[in-house]
Request: fold
Amino acid sequence: MTGSGPRSLARTIPAVIAPALARRGRTLAVLLSQWEGIVGPELAEVSQPLRLSGGSRGGAPDVLVVQVVGAAATELLHRAPQLIERANGCLGVPAIGRLRLVHGMPAPRRPPPPLPLPDAPTRAAMAAAVAGIESPELRAALARFGGTLTALADRAARHV
Reply:
């Protein structure tokens, strides 16, 4: 013991476990944001990562607790080694050692925001850019595509 005397556990424990809790929070956030890419669109509709539980021994990989609906649990169990490998690949470290499935309906996913509509000057510029294309269907599609891309770029620039 150092000369500082006894320390309160209530004041010491948070400082010791804070890094581990922060790591788990970031890890779960990454898994939630990449879940569809890890399991595929069909399984992403009926499952979601809930939490990480510590491994059984110090230093052991975490257990990823996944909420899943009915028969999809069988598919997740069958593909567990591949899904763990994909999840660890997204994380960049072998943080997950196994899956634990719990029954339940996952929260609905938010739909992506609607595509922005181009303003009148952008629509006019796109129409002029594709004016030399003979096919009216192709000309209209390319003008819409260019206008949407420009509007998306403008929206992204405003949010930086």
Remarks:
- The mean pLDDT is 82.
- Strands lie at 47-53, 62-68, 96-103.
- The chain has two domains: 9-103, 120-158.
